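Re-running the complex after MR caught last week's input typo. The corrected sequence lines follow. Everything else is unchanged.
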Amino acid sequence: MSQRIHVRELADSFRGRASEALADDQLRTNFRVAMDSLMKKRADAFPDEGEREGLREQGNHIKARALSRLPDLLEQLEEKLTDNGIKVHWAETTEEANRIVHAIIEARQGSQVVKGKSMVSEEMEMNHYLAGRGIECLESDMGEYIVQLDGEKPSHIIMPAIHKNRRQVSKLFHDKLGVEETDDVNELIQVGRRTLRTKFMEADVGVSGVNFAIAETGTLLLVENEGNGRMSTTAPPVHIAVTGIEKVVENLRDVVPLLSLLTRSALGQPITTYVNMISGPRKADELDGPEEVHLVLLDNGRTGAFADAQMRQTLNCIRCGACMNHCPVYTRVGGHTYGEVYPGPIGKIVTPHMVGLEKVPDHPSASSLCGACGEVCPVKIPIPELLQRLRQENVKSPAEQPKVKGGGARYSRRERAIWRFWATLNTSPMFYRLFLWGATRFGRLAPKKAGPWTDNHAAPVPARKSLHDLARTHLEKGESQP
Amino acid sequence: MSARSNILGRLRASLADTRPRPDDFDETLVTGPWQYPPQERIKRLRSLMEAVQTELHLVTSESWPAKVEALLEARGLANLLYAPGTDHGRQLAAHWQAGGAKPELLAYNRPVEAWKEDLFWKVEASLTGTVGGIAATGSLVLWPDRHEPRLMSLLPPLHIALLKASEVEDNLYTIMQRQGWSAAMPTNLLLVSGPSKTADIEQVLAYGAHGPKELVVLILEDA
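Corrected-run output:
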């Protein structure tokens, strides 16, 4: 078939990267160890199944309720934030969001930015955009910092540098920062602490993401363990938060179950070290905190997902990463194989709306549909069901009008014709008998090579007697007995 | 057309002929499993916070400033950042004056810009109050304001927090409701559940990432 190009020729594709990752023993060990530990931590954090399921149901209802009123809640959020002194900006594309961020920095004549962890800023490739305009944008989450220092992208949404071990980090710090090599993780972290502390102090602007935006109170809630998020949102004179439009929830109380689901699903922690609720810039009589706080609300394909009642469920996501921790495919191929900002099961269902399915046509099929992702999702996104939907969208003909952006990229007339033939064969008794007659007699003449299948398996050989034949013989014998 | 109206327009079009989902929030899900008899609350808070390398001490409303002094001296620290406009700040300063305690008291009484470098590099410890604690998750609730600014609980390597035993509640939902948070959120409201930490390298837990390396909680037995 037209898609069956040999793996070697696809070095920059999902398949090519996957086979490279699978051949990398160090990478596989790093992921296996980390994912096993994260799965155990999550399981230990939810000892009571009834409690866990009740909370997941609640989490799903809260997000579904928020989405069912999304435009109203966004307006309410904007109004409350504005009342609190936070300036709200809207961006349809990542380019627009970058322009907004750049304009805010320029207005302050800023040249140094520190960033707390933000996946939306990864979507925007903000570091790259600002670097091109002479602005240094430094990641301050330890994992993100390591990844940035090595010119890489995060391989996990919660643990960006999980693909590296301590020796690799030590070598990196030695090469880039000129410090002594060490096997002591504590020492490595202290190197990061010292280097970044200067940056927090000097930065003109701090950038962060948002975990939940609360419409009722006009509050931006951020969770973290390191304190870099608090640094980025508190120390510089300007704080810019960037987030997707789906992060809004209706009430402050709604975050209670969501917070518990998030930290327990992500890291197995009852709560993160810091829960940082920001409801305004520094007041006139206050002594610290940013003088300006901005929120950039980004669409980037989310309204497209929203338009489809089934795919809308992708917007429930609270970015805990549990689906990737439990994914047998992700654990083996690692985050970079996906080639996009969001890897793993959740990445497979949110990325098409952002970049178009035609850019990631292998993603929906890179799944065994084992169902683990859907089972652990704290807000009950039916990920396997959505992957199947994307598989259908992938092969829709132009006449069938694919609904997902970039759908139909894998439509093939030849494949469609083969399936139609196969369906007819199996639903018409006459054709089917004719086929069996031929297969049992001439099956041995079938080719020994059958595409990638025979790279690793023996070619199937039809039996000399069909099941129909055997059943007939069996029944005849049975009837002949008294 | 602006981005705002385009986004909202598309969302509204997608919701045509639909109704908002009902609000079926069930508070028992977030309170039921997280309720403790009063004497158990402190015990649970203590065990959860100790599990993340927090030091806790029971103190009285008279004895705590001496405890602060002892903590600093045991560590050989040279100074302490405090909030002079708070009740506990005044009590601390009085103790320092009366006893001639050695570590230098630094008052957070001017804007951060006036002494940013000192705050980042020179300050070795800080003392702040809290507005409560949460037994379910082992958390402190900090409500920074003009008297006790945000950075006090973030920059110094050692953060000492005062917690009144009577203000420890069962869970986040209860404390949020009881203190009426949603009616008047401060510019910055914080839950702090240990010293800053990271597991970003090989998932090995390391304390003292960017915030305090040590957190000490002084529990005031006021009940």
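None of the earlier attempt is carried over here. The CA atoms of residues 120 and 207 of chain B lie 18 Å apart. Helices of chain B lie at 3-14, 28-31, 38-51, 64-75, 87-99, 116-121, 172-178.
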